[in-house]
Each structure stands twice: as structure tokens, then as C-alpha cells.
Amino acid sequence: MDIFLQQTVNALALGGTYALLALGLAVVFSIMGLINFAHGELMTIAGYVLMYCGIAGLSFVIAVPLALLASVVAAVLMERIAFRPVRNGSGATMLVTSFAVAMILQVLFQNLISTRSQPVLLPAMLSDSVHIMGMVIGVNKLAAIIATVVMLVFLDWFMKHQKTGIAMRAAAEDFAVARLMGIRANTVIAGAFALSGLLAGVAAVLWVSQRASVDPLMGFMPVLKAFIAAILGGLGSLRGAVAGGFLLGFIEIYLSAFLPPEMQEFREPIGLGIVVLVLLFRPNGLIPSATLKAEKV
Amino acid sequence: MTTSPARHLIASLLGIIALSLIATLVATTLGPASERILTVFFISLIAVVGMGLYSGNSGILSFGHLSFMGIGAYVSGLLTLPAQMKMATLPKLPDWLAGTETGFLTAVLIAVLVTSVVALVVGLALNRLEGSAATIATLGLLIITHGVIIGWRDVTRGSQSFFGVPRETTLWAAAIFCILALITARLYRDSVSGLRLRAGRENAIAASAVGVNIRKERLIAWVLSAAIMALSGALIGHFLGAFSPKKFYFADTFLLLAMLIVGGMSTVTGAITGAVTITLVTEVLRRFEGGFNLAGLEMPAVFGTTQIGIGLIILFAMFRKPEGLAGLKELEERFFPAHKLGAAAQGAGDTVKNVDPAPLEGKNLTMRFGGLVAVKDVSITVSSGEILGLIGPNGSGKTTLLNMLSGVLAPSEGTVLRGNTDLTNAQPYEVANHGIARTFQNIRLFDTLTVYQNVLIAALSTNKGERATQRCEVAIRAMGIGPHAGSDANTLSYGDQRRVEIARALACEPSLLFLDEPAAGMNREETDDLMATLQKLTRELGLGVLIVDHDLKLINQLCDRIIVLNEGAEIAQGDPAEIRKNPAVIEAYLGHS
């Protein structure tokens, strides 16, 4: 039972990170139909900012906002430079563009920074642990869970009560009509990218604080998982992205904790197999996007 | 059976064979280094057309195809690996496999078959997903396959190198298999299945409405493309002699996808163009990778020059030519004219073979979208030989009713019957095969296909495709769009596009025809013209027509009977004269006086 609770905390921490990443992908996808492969590189950028801040001796309290700022700026620039020219292209065109961007950024990191994994200085406090209800929980895990909850609450408030947030929801529903109502396309899209950059930045901080290192391909795997979380939850649906992220986190952590040792090598295929199984019964995801059925015939 | 003019296919087959042979001969004279490059090129090209066969025709980008390449390589490698080698490197192999040692060709064949079976199973699951979700699912497939290959150590040596595979892939073998793969892909593109799949890519709803079962065609293309990938995998395995799971993962996926996308994924011409371009660029950039001397300037070694180069080419292609360098047409389609209409066939006009006398009955149909009730308890009967008008203010549920009758929407309540057949939850392609064809309010043509192909797909996909060519040409003539037969559908004027829609519906040889605002955007003469055609069709062929339109003059002159909807419910029914006097109708249209 103890192990189970302990693993549940781990699953919440990992699932929360996936959820934030998947949300960032979903915010952009719901508005412009772009599956952003380069989302992981936003994470990597935030990771490197943390690393350089550590080297420069800046406190973590300053480093984190800087890292978030960097990934927000990078996301907005990415949209402006790479995605605006293909904004009206097909889904495949945009997806391919984003993978080219991801590839170029990865090579740049490898050349300009290092091909190897670099250590990141973290405050000692993060590697402590606390005792709650008989469980030993790492501060970094706890921080991850709290940060996820704070971000989700913030996002909910932003989407419901902020003008830009409401505009984004309108644009996700029907971009053409939203524009006719006087919503500026550039503002909404830039806003969506900024938001997805922020989410990627938070995810990067959480990711790095569990591992204390950063490498040029750091963002690749978690974002791949976030893609899968996004379709598991329902592509384009924000609530779905959160649900899918958490479910994927739970699947992965429980498998690694409870799968017999001789099966551990097949952990990844089995985990994805479970995802496929869920999708066979719910092809549009756990919480399908509302716009799916809205196509007028 | 193929659906394009024979001269296109002959030209392309000759082109493929000639190019491959010339390249091979040139390489053999240049020496072993060029031979190696060309062999790898051929093997990559096989993989690229394999990916293109699925992604290009279906419009669903796949990241998972290297899984099949990997399966092909491992299966064929396990078969040709000498028995002694197996004992040494794979001691835990099951006995039946440990003792087997086959020749190269047998191994390739078995690898292709095994992979096809795997692809069939995967495809059945994948087929439930649409568009971008399907694309991401293929990413999942790649990760799963990679995981299984690494985990299954007893058979694959895990992440270690799988070595000792005999190097049987010669340049000539690669060339011949490449020719075969290119021809397969080219023929598939213009096969009945390929044409249907492309129609589904252009407009899934319309394709379904003319009888295309898109999922079935997708599955065919998926399995066929997996078989080609397996061939490519078996060849690369027997070319390298040693490989590891990494060979069939993201790096090579991106490289091959880059070739496909830069060239243009919807044609074989594009696959070849892309493979040539990327191979040339990689070969050139690789020489700069270690640093070079430019006019006395020492350039430093830049790691990953090739990747950056490929990335920039992709960006450039996407910004400038999102359809790829080769565009949407095969080379030969640009040089030789497309379909022309032959001389008028005998008995032109007999569009309908047997009229199914059973009327279509919708009983107590209700459609809810969340809290909104779009159609409330409406019953409707459409019989052959009768023109039935459906009118009502905007948002009164006319199109929703039409969608329920044609299978696009499944009603929340109520039944749809044709004679004794229950069509309530039938898919649109099944409805189309029960003699019911329709057009759409917002024009839904297969934009990048020719008018001829647009109509031909409908003829091929209904009534078992009998007399398809004749039906197609009769329908085109009936609507007077013969002169445009060879043009792409999206280049036509609005009125002509509407006519193509009707011709496409007629080519299904329906006994009942649903027209959703056929006269929208037409001027008076065009509308009168349309009216005459429709009257002729019903009178001569006994066709039943259900027509939705806002042009009350058209409806009044054309219809035998009119049903009026308002706010989802039927408010009146009767002949035009009755309807004009009905107070409820007047109120719905003009409001209280």
C-alpha cells in the first residue's frame, strides 16, 4: 500500500509534466491545427537558461523566471519566423515545417553549446525530502505537483476571465467567425504561442529539477509523450490534454513499479499498447474536442 | 484495372525503367564508390515510394513506416543468417528458427509477407483514428516497434548490432527491386483503389457519399506500403551486413520523410525528385562537414551540417512549394493531355439501369446536437418519379434532415428505411450503394483531380463499378461539362462546379437524388437550364428527386410536392399551390402581419 501511494505521488509528478506539455501543444493545435514538433526545443531552451544561470551564480529564484521568459520569447519568435509563412497551409505542411525547425535547433544546440549532457546547479533544497503521512516525498516531486496545480488553475482562470483567453477559446471554436467579430488573428496566435511557451518553460523547470542535467535532445522524448497524451485525451481539447497527460504518467509509473522484472524491457511498448487499447474504444480520445462534430456538411 | 489513360502509364513505366538502368550503367562505369552511393539511393527510394504510397494517396503523414523497414530487415536477416552464426550470436533462438537458413530471395519474400500481416493488424487499429491523431499514432507505432526490437534480445540481440547477415544486395538487385517498387507505386496511384483513396484525401465526406469506403482503401494502401518498406528493409539489411535498432528510428525516419516531402508526396515523380535532391545535397554537404578552406578562409568543422542543410531545404520547400518540388501531378500528366471524352456512347441518356421502386422513408426523425434540437420528429417519404421540394427559413433543419437520410448523420431518434432495408445507421457509402446519391450545399469536389476523375470515382464505387466508363461519360454529357473533362475541378467556375457535383451524383446511377441548394450562386439562365435538365431526368428516367433550395420560383415550378420545415419541425406539406396559401408557411417566411 505504501509503495502504491508512493508511486502515485511519482505518477502525479510525471503526469503533471506531461499534462503541461500536452496543454501547450493543445492550445496551439486547437487554434491553428499545427502539431508543433519544436515544442520540445522550447523546453530545451528553458533548460539551458537554467544551466547558464547556475554557472553565472544567479539564484534559482531569478533563474526560473528567466527560463520561463526565454521559452515564451522563443515560442513567439518561432511563430513569427517559421510558422507565419505556412499558417494557411495544410496540417501536414505545418507539421513538417515544425520538424525542420526542431531539427535545426537541435543541431544548433549541439554546435553552440555541447553535444553532451550538461549538469545544472539546483538549490540543495530540491533534493531534500519531506515526510507526509508516513511517506517520503522528494521536494522536487512535491514542487512539480504544486506547480502543475497552480498552472492549471491559472490557465483555467486565464481562459475564462481574460480577454485574450476568451478570444483564444473563440478562435479554437471557429477562427473565421472569431476574426469577423474583430479578434485579431496575429494577437490570438501569438498569445497561444506565448502560452504554450510558458507551459513548456514550466515543464522544463520541473523536468530539470528531477534530473539536474540538460542535453540538446532533452525536450524530444517528453514532448513525444505529450503528443501521445494529447491524442489519448482528445486532440485539440484542453481538458483532454490534461487528462491524457495524467493518464500516461500513471500508466508509465505503475508499469515501471509493478511490472515483473523480466518484462521491464517491454515497458514502453506495453505502456503505448495500453494507450492504443484505450483509443480503440475511444477513437476521439478521453474528452473529445467539441469542434470535431461541428463541420458543416 | 487502371483509371488513367494508357499512354500515361506506358510513358511513366518506360521512364522509370530507362532512368534506373541508365543510372546503374553509369555508376558501374564510375567505380565502387558510386556503386555504393547508388545502391543506397535505390534502397532509400524504395522506402520513400513506400511511404508515399500511403501518405501521399491518403493524405495522412506517417512517421511509423520505418517500423516495417525494421521488421523486414530483421526477419530476412534471421532467415539468411548462417546456422553456425546463429548458434554463436543468438543461442536462445527457438529451434525451428535456429535451424532455418534460406536463400536471399526467399528471405526477402517471407520478410515482405510477414511484415504485411503485421501491417494488416496494426492498420486495423490505426484505421479508427483520423488525420493528425493518426499521424501521432504512427509515431507511437515507431516507438513500440523500436521497444520490442530492443527488448526481444533472444531474437534480435537487443540494442546491440545484429551482424553476420550475408551481403547479398548488389547494385543490380537494388535497381531491379527499385524498378518494381516504383512501378507498383505508380500503378497503385491510378488504380481504382488509389483513385478512391485520393478522392478521400481531397474530401472525405464527398468520397463517402459517392460510395467510397475510405477505411478499406486506406488499409489496402497501408499494407501495400508496408510490404514495400519491408522490401527496402530486407535490402538494406543485406547491403550493410550489420545493423542495430537505431537504424530504423527517428534519424532515418526524418531523412526519408524529408525526401518525400521536399519532392512532393502525392506523386512518384515527387518521390524520385526528393530522393535525388536530398541525396545530392547530403553528399555535397558531407564533404564540408569536416571544415574546408574557402579562398584562404579556414572554415571550422561544423557538426551536423547535413541536418541543417536538410532542415533549411524543408523550410524553403514548405514556404515556397508546400506541395513539394514536383507538385501534385506526375511528370507524364503534365506532358500528355488528360482524359478526353470519346464519341457519344450508344444509348446515351440511359443513366439508370434499374429503378428501385421502393421509396425511401424517414420515420419520426429527430436530431439533437447537445442541447440543440435541429430536427424534431419529422417524417418524410421520397419516391421515384417524383420531385419533392424541401423548403424553410435558414436554420430550419433542411440540410440536417438530408444528412440523416443520406447517412452523413445518424439520427438521435427515428428510422430510415428503403423498402425492407434499414438504413438508419448505415454509413454514407452504403447509402450510396442503395441507389441514393446527393450533392452538397457547400461544394465538395475532389479539388486536385480532373472533372473526369471526379465523376469516374462515383461510377466506379457504386453498383459494383459496372459499365463505369460509360456511366461516367453519360453523366458528364448530361450536365454539359464535357469540354472541362480534363481540367482540375478547382479550376472551374462556380456554376460549372455545381454541375460537376450533379454529374458526380448522377454517375452513381441513383434512383433517388438529393440536391442541396443546387441553384445557389447560379444566375437566372443557369437556373432555368438546370431546371430543364432535372425535369428531363425525372421524366425520362423515373428518378426521384429531393431538392432543397431557397429559390422559390424554382421550387414552385419544379416540384410535385413540397415539405416546409420551420425550427426543425414540419409545418406544412402539399402541392405548390397549397403551400403558397398555407398560413403557417406565410408566417414562417414573412412573420406576423
From TrEMBL, chain A:
User: Can you quote a single GO CC term?
Assistant: plasma membrane
Q: Does the keyword Cell membrane apply?
A: yes
- What GO terms in the biological process aspect are recorded for it? D-alanine transmembrane transport; L-alanine transport; L-isoleucine import across plasma membrane
Q: How does it sit in the membrane?
A: Multi-pass membrane protein
Q: What is its main location?
A: membrane
Pfam families listed in its UniProt record: BPD_transp_2
Q: Which residues cross the membrane?
A: 12-37, 49-77, 89-109, 129-159, 188-208, 228-257, 269-287
List, alphabetically, the CDD domains matched: TM_PBP1_LivH_like
At the top level, the lineage of the source is: Bacteria
Subcellular localization is given as: Cell membrane
Listed A to Z, the keywords are: Amino-acid transport, Cell inner membrane, Cell membrane, Membrane, Transmembrane, Transmembrane helix, Transport
> Which molecular-function annotations from GO does this UniProt entry contain?
L-isoleucine transmembrane transporter activity; L-leucine transmembrane transporter activity; L-phenylalanine transmembrane transporter activity; L-valine transmembrane transporter activity
InterPro entries xrefs: ABC_transp_permease, BCAA_transport_permease
Q: Which family does it belong to?
A: Belongs to the binding-protein-dependent transport system permease family. LivHM subfamily.
Know the name of this protein?
Answer: Branched-chain amino acid ABC transporter permease
UniProtKB/TrEMBL annotation, chain B:
According to the record, the segments passing through the membrane are 6-30, 37-54, 60-81, 102-126, 132-150, 171-188, 219-242, 254-281, 301-319
Localization per Swiss-Prot or TrEMBL: Cell membrane
Instruction: Cite a single Pfam family from the UniProt record.
Output: BPD_transp_2
A GO CC annotation given for this chain: plasma membrane
Q: Which UniProt keywords apply?
A: ATP-binding, Cell membrane, Hydrolase, Membrane, Nucleotide-binding, Transmembrane, Transmembrane helix, Transport
Q: Which domain of life is it from?
A: Bacteria
Q: The ABC transporter domain covers which part of the protein? A: 360-592
Q: Which GO terms describe its biological process?
A: D-alanine transmembrane transport; L-alanine transport; L-isoleucine import across plasma membrane; L-valine import across plasma membrane
**Primary site of residence:** membrane
What's its membrane topology? Multi-pass membrane protein
Q: Give GO MF terms, alphabetically.
A: ATP binding; ATP hydrolysis activity; L-isoleucine transmembrane transporter activity; L-phenylalanine transmembrane transporter activity; L-valine transmembrane transporter activity
Protein name, as recorded: Metal-dependent hydrolase
